[in-house]
Amino acid sequence: MLRTMEGIESLVYGIGIAGVAAQAAAGVLDAGRKPFDLFGIVVVALAAALGGGTLRDLLLDRAVFWIADQRYLIGAMAAGLATFALVRLVRLPARLFLLPDALGLALFTVSGTQAALALGAPWLVASLMGVITGVFGGIVRDVLCNELPLVFTGELYATASWAGALLLLGLMAHGTSPGQAALAGGSLTLALRLCAIRFGWRLPMFKARS
Amino acid sequence: MLRTMEGIESLVYGIGIAGVAAQAAAGVLDAGRKPFDLFGIVVVALAAALGGGTLRDLLLDRAVFWIADQRYLIGAMAAGLATFALVRLVRLPARLFLLPDALGLALFTVSGTQAALALGAPWLVASLMGVITGVFGGIVRDVLCNELPLVFTGELYATASWAGALLLLGLMAHGTSPGQAALAGGSLTLALRLCAIRFGWRLPMFKARS
Amino acid sequence: MLRTMEGIESLVYGIGIAGVAAQAAAGVLDAGRKPFDLFGIVVVALAAALGGGTLRDLLLDRAVFWIADQRYLIGAMAAGLATFALVRLVRLPARLFLLPDALGLALFTVSGTQAALALGAPWLVASLMGVITGVFGGIVRDVLCNELPLVFTGELYATASWAGALLLLGLMAHGTSPGQAALAGGSLTLALRLCAIRFGWRLPMFKARS
């Protein structure tokens, strides 16, 4: 569709900012159910939006992405404050955020996996980096709100991320170009997540008998 | 007031140790409300005292301050154990710790902001590093105690830190020397925090309707 | 007993994998009491098994061990999934995991302490790195499960780790070879932990009066 690498890169960058903003908005909606003040809500929003990529960069010993380029930080803060203001004015349906959040998950998965590959990480580690980038922010958000992480209990989320990361890695191992593998992996993550929301797909749960 | 940079540096160093010790003592008082053993209390005290600076150093890819200079660690442990012993002997007013804690907040804000600036971080990131250095320890303390972070719910704390960091950055952008900007920024943080405690200043809170 | 350094190293490596696997299994048993799905349980197991060493490597600015060598990751995931499957089939006594877990604690203590020493850390920092490597995974596990960290409330655990680390450091300061000091320190940790389980040894607790 896009003819130049620059086109793809600016698309990826734009979706990255959009994903960060969507997860910041979701963080505000979550934190707003607690007796937090404005600062607490902004912190939870930033942790939700930036937590996954931060842990990925610390683990891979790269420069932390939002320190190297503060547009991510500004995007997350602006989205968090805008959501804070909007929620006081109009009643937003919580499901409104699910589509950009799913887009962000797909992009974070792809970017996390490829960042790890670029640094020579083995395949299993690279796939986990994709998952960590996609889901860790949501885990931090729920820990700060003193709740069980939603990622561990709801419809497919991390599983969708992992499936996309593995598809990307499998395609690249068979010679597919990085761009096409990223497109395929990201699309699988997005499709799985949207289907999981629509049809209520879940992983098996268990209660230990001990 | 002080004529040499060495004088300022040893003053800053002393306040830094005092701030670490004060936050360790506050951690003991917080953890002591839980059924923790002595070790758990010491860990919470260390996390409260060293957590903010540790996250700052990890994010900025600097050597972690208490690993490079273990006097911070010894100060935090000594303060934690002394508080543990004192609380068993006499009834300490909880508010006793608010003054050194506020001093520590002001100093951590200044040192975190300047450390980020020295590494070339953009201004918004630098101001957030000041805030992170000041408040992250208290967040970890409350997460370990399985409570909502007090920083998100009480009187102005992080906001005082952020205001001081922004003043410091604004003054330096207009040519003020680092030492004077640090003095002004730190003083603003300290004054705001003390006034917030005295007069109950808070940020607006909200409950999302969704 | 073993005549070559290679023999010792492969023994240490094997116990390391076993320790990681044991802590992953313990993580599954803990997470299984919550309404987590399979992914959530695997994440808690990985966090329990790899969290301590990860924090150690981040603090010391080393390559994260399970990224450099993914056999640790595979071991932790295999042990977590096997435990998940087993618990659905047969009733496992929870105490079954205490022996390998104690072995893992002893080994993690030794390896964490020596890794810090090798990087020139002062003795107090080095001993804490041993403790962090041994216990941080269990703390993350309990925070993710929204519970008070067991490490802070139960029988001697971190204390056993610290005693072993200090013995190792004391012996090395008096000229004992690293291998013998590691054996002595690890044995002390293991013995203290097993005695604490058997005889219910605990540290003093306190409730602050404020």
TrEMBL record, chains A, B, C:
GO terms for cellular component: plasma membrane. InterPro entries: Gly_transporter. Its main location: membrane. Belongs to the UPF0126 family. Keywords: Cell membrane, Membrane, Transmembrane, Transmembrane helix. It comes from Thauera chlorobenzoica. Pfam families: Gly_transporter (PF03458). Coiled coil: none annotated. Signal peptide: none annotated. This is Membrane protein. It is found in: Cell membrane. It is a multi-pass membrane protein.
